[in-house]
UniProtKB/TrEMBL annotation:
Keywords: Flavoprotein, Oxidoreductase
Protein name per its UniProtKB record: FAD-dependent oxidoreductase 2 FAD-binding domain-containing protein
PANTHER family assigned: SUCCINATE DEHYDROGENASE 2 FLAVOPROTEIN SUBUNIT (PTHR11632), SUCCINATE DEHYDROGENASE [UBIQUINONE] FLAVOPROTEIN SUBUNIT, MITOCHONDRIAL (PTHR11632:SF51)
The species this protein was found in: marine sediment metagenome
Single GO MF annotation: oxidoreductase activity
One Pfam family recorded for the sequence: FAD_binding_2
Every FAD-dependent oxidoreductase 2 FAD-binding domain range: 46-281
SUPFAM superfamilies per UniProt: FAD/NAD(P)-binding domain
Length: 287
């Protein structure tokens, strides 16, 4: 079978999308709307964050800093994510010979100028602030004897700007974020083993929460929220073209499907990043 197929429905209709993802996007919902009484709400909150990895935990903490009440709904446990497994680092322009403008050009070049400029601009401007924020929370980035952070060259970089915590950067960051979330139970409630299966929409066509499914009790949970953030990661665990993967078990396109079903346009769905340090081929050498 081909690696890509033209999707037949939704905002990306007619575009070539990775076949495994296209099949899920075209699938029917397994729930019957008539089975739910949406006037009965189990949780009511300011912000619902779907996903408990680095992005989700970080979003919840920043929402709390802005005085919002938050619920994190995660398919597995808080912290179970690809974020925990990352061994590289985070790039941010903090050195005297670097700047967000130089970082911006590096990112555009690395993306073969197919990037969204506004998103890249936000990335490079916020990156130094995020490094400072993470350090203040307790992430122990590598430092020189003089106390300044160690920075290294990363792929596509013209300056040293990659910040790491030895070779377990993701775990170091995720442990701090997870513990910080748990330090604020009065503002951030975590609902584990409860993936979101459908987004709720209000009469104006805006997202107003989600329906969760508790994997342990097999019960549905209705969460109403003023704002909803999807932070469920990618789709590497779908084993694209039957390739082996070290992606976390949660990376199965859940958030992409949720957003697509309510009209969100998906970007760059014809592309998959393949990082070849974890492949074994042919299979016979596994023994």
């Amino acid at each position: 079978a081909d690696a890509k197929k033209k999707i037949r429905i939704g905002p990306n209709r007619g575009e070539n999308i990775t076949s495994e993802v296209a099949d899920i996007l075209e699938s029917h919902s397994r729930i019957n709307p008539d089975d739910f009484d949406l006037s009965r709400v189990d949780y009511d909150t300011d912000v619902l964050v779907i996903g408990g990895g680095g992005g989700g935990a970080g979003a919840a903490l920043l929402a709390r800093e802005n005085r919002a009440k938050v619920i994190i709904a995660t398919k597995l446990r808080i912290g179970d994510s690809n974020s925990m497994m990352s061994q590289g680092g985070i790039q941010a322009s903090v050195n005297p010979n670097d700047s967000p403008a130089i970082h911006y050009l590096d990112v555009l070049g690395g993306g073969h100028f197919d990037n969204k400029p506004d998103l890249v601009r936000t990335l490079v401007i916020d990156a130094p602030l995020v490094i400072k924020w993470l350090e203040e929370l307790g992430v122990m980035f590598d430092k020189n004897p003089d106390g300044n952070m160690v920075t290294m060259l990363g792929g596509g970089c013209s300056r040293k700007r990659m910040h790491s915590a030895r070779d377990y950067t993701g775990a170091a960051i995720m442990r701090v974020l997870r513990d910080e979330v748990k330090n604020h139970p009065e503002d951030i409630q975590v609902i584990e083993f409860s993936p979101a299966i459908e987004l709720l929409m209000d009469e104006g066509g805006q997202v107003a929460g989600a329906i969760l499914y508790n994997l342990e009790t097999e019960e549905y949970i209705i969460v109403r929220a003023k704002s909803t953030i999807i932070a469920t990661g990618g789709f590497g665990r779908l084993h694209i073209k039957e390739f082996a993967t070290t992606n976390h078990y949660g990376a199965t396109a859940d958030g992409l499907v949720l957003g697509y079903k309510v009209g969100a346009n998906l970007l760059y769905m014809d592309s998959v990043q393949y990082h070849p340090t974890g492949a074994v081929y042919p299979e016979q050498i596994l023994g």
